Amino acid sequence: MAAAAAPPVAKKVPRQLVEHGDVRVDNYYWLRDDSRSDPDVLAHLRAENDYTAAVMSDVKQLEDEIYAQIRGRIKEDDIDAPLHKGQYYYYERTLTGKEYAQHCRRPVPTDAPITVHDVMPSGPDAPEEHIILDENVKAQGHDYYSIGAFKVSPNNKLVAYAEDTKGDEIYTVYVIDAESGVYVGQPLKGITSDIEWAGDDHLVYITMDSILRPDKVWLHKLGSDQSSDACLYHEKDDTFSLGLQASESKRYLFVESGSKNTSFIFYLDISKQNKELAVLTPRVYGIDTTASHRGNHFFIKRRSDEFYNSELVACPLDNVVETTILLPHRESVKIQDFQLFDNHVAVYERENGLPKVTVYRLPAIGESIGQLQGGRVLDFIDPTYSVDPEESQFHSSVLRFHYSSMRTPPSVYDYDMDSGVSVLKKIHTVLGGFDASNYVTERKWATAADGTQIPMSILYRKDLVKLDGSDPMLLYGYGSYEICIDPSFRGSRFSLVDRGFIYVIAHIRGGGEMGRKWYEDGKLLKKKNTFTDFIDCAEYLIKNKYCSKEKLCINGRSAGGLLMGAVLNMRPDLFRAAVAGVPFVDVVTTMLDPTIPLTTAEWEEWGDPRKEEYYYYMKSYSPVDNVTAQEYPNILVTAGLNDPRVMYSEPAKYVAKLRELKRDDNLLLFKCELGAGHNSKSGRFEKLQEDAFTYAFILKALGMTRKLASL
User: Entry's InterPro entries (predicted)?
Assistant: First the structure.
């Protein structure tokens, strides 16, 4: 039983790590095995898993019940919003009891133009559905299965898809006949999920170097051998990585080479027989560009130190250095993304921490283009929400976008950019008696130590909370890479919220929610702002009676796992329980080792500790280096053995050091998925099991395991 289980004790094999004359002793360095086959390492990971299972065995019934609740909210047999593309509607279908999706299409019965009122026919008289690819069939025999790209050729006859069967994000690309499913040519191996068609008989793709950095872009002619493919560009600077995208017009491909603060672009004209890359924007340190195409212009989003929230410019195809400003830089509005159409541009922005979508009408193709005026701003109803672009059709006036909030299920809208009419095409059905009106979402601001206002998004069920400090809470944070953690919908969350929890997202510095400066104030030598912001949010929530220290649980993954490790060392008294998912916790050692995947590309995010100033700053917050002999709250740590982003050994070492030094009897559990990577398991229901396990741990830590009845 749980009471008899003894935690595994990792053996100590001291290893001296010396940098700048400073000596660190790492007793658990031996846990790193790049081959992932060392018997001692695997035995230790299995012992940790066995211990975790034993300790959690007394709440297995609760975990199973939570899993049933979460799964019970899902409409298992469903289709997403069909996309009218050429002569077909394309969509994904899920089936009852099946982990993965089917990729389907159905012929469009008429040649009518695309409108917001377009509805795919169904029923006995409708054109027959065709299943192009069934992931459930392809996944058979694999513990892990993920399709990273699914690209239909311009003539709709072929499909190229990228497949990962380990979780290491190294893909194999197959080309199939869209009707028969017969393979065309040989698979392309060892590539990223960035693939695009260059006409109907060529593919462009990207491969990685030994540290999994996307460094080469290739042109493949269908039917030829991969070994004869032409390398279009090789990025030799190991702080830069390559990316690939197609213009909405489908006339150009763009290859971007980017670091954390610089990017430049090549373009490829698909219509030309001689498929070569040409320079669109030059390589200038500190200038960041992304591009697309319409008519006789390239459109470019450009960021620099001066124009840090980005500007939107256009240049003629035949004179790319002659730029015209379409949207100038604004201090209070950050341009995040844009989508081009025949007659419009939709600009995705951020203002005051919230997403904003503005649509502008463009002059006719061939006419001169100047600063955009008179944009139409889309209205959204929730106080905090998430909006993202969806694939739309260039030769239409219909903008498709994805909307949700913490209480509004995922919704797909088609917006008529001429009339301003918005039509809901799909809202995910949430079963189990879900009623959005039972829930409240709020936006509050905590004041950081330096006076900065930190936004928070809050969700609770209004008939279950007291707001007197006695409510349990789960506080989530990330705060890195300029990533915006917008308050979107997640059905599993309600298994806590319906037990009286308040759920909060802290939009801390290091993310991009409040603009580029928000990110820059939470990276490099300002990284500690991320951690102190999170602590300040926690203290605001306690002071304002949303929770108490005794009921406050925290959660973060990856760089958010670093956040967990840092705040647990800084303020272990503030929290009752913490969940650190695939956490980046051995910061100094990882950043000193350029042979580890992603390290070189990360120096512009965290700093290069080969430089003394960065070394000592990093060492002052790196979780593994700052575990001390003190009391810690209840902690659950997770990892994936095949994770290429955060090596499993980082959380393994972190847990081993915590076990050695902590001075309390609270739970410390480590769960390492031996057949998964950074994103955990691949099946849609398997992923829910992880949520159920996490929530059972939180409830156990809070002593709330008796509340088994469904609400």
Answer: AB_hydrolase_fold, Pept_S9A_N, Peptidase_S9_cat, Peptidase_S9A, Serine_Peptidase_S9A
Q: Which tokens hold the place of 703? A: 């002593």
643 is a catalytic site residue: yes
Residue with tokens 């212009």: 297
Beta-strand pair 354-361/376-377: antiparallel
Output the pLDDT for position 4.
63
Asked if 361 and 345 count as a contact pair (C-beta separation under 8 A), the reply is no
- Whole-model pTM: value is 0.93
The string of DSSP codes covering 132-152 is EEEHHHHTTT-S--EEEEEEE
pLDDT tens-place string over residues 370-416: 999 999 999 998 999 999 999 999 999 999 999 999 999 999 999 99
Pick the catalytic residue: 558, 622, 649, 680? 558
Active-site residue, selected from the candidate residues 643, 649, 682, 691: 643
Question: Which residue of the set 44, 202, 329, 678 is catalytic?
Answer: 678
Q: Is 558 a catalytic residue?
A: yes
Angstrom distance (rounded) from CA 487 to CA 536: 19
Distance CA 416, CA 413 (A): 10
**Two tokens, residue 137:** 């069939």
> pLDDT tens digits, residue range 126-155?
999 999 999 999 999 999 999 999 999 999
CA dihedral 69, 679, 220, 252 (to 10 degrees): 80
Annotated catalytic residue 507: no
C-alpha distances out from residue 611 to 151, 614, 618, 623, 630, Å:
44, 6, 11, 20, 31
Model confidence over 610-643: pLDDT tens digits?
999 999 999 999 999 999 999 999 999 999 998 8
CA distance 490 to 379: 22
Q: What domains are defined for the chain?
A: 287-430 (2.130.10.120)
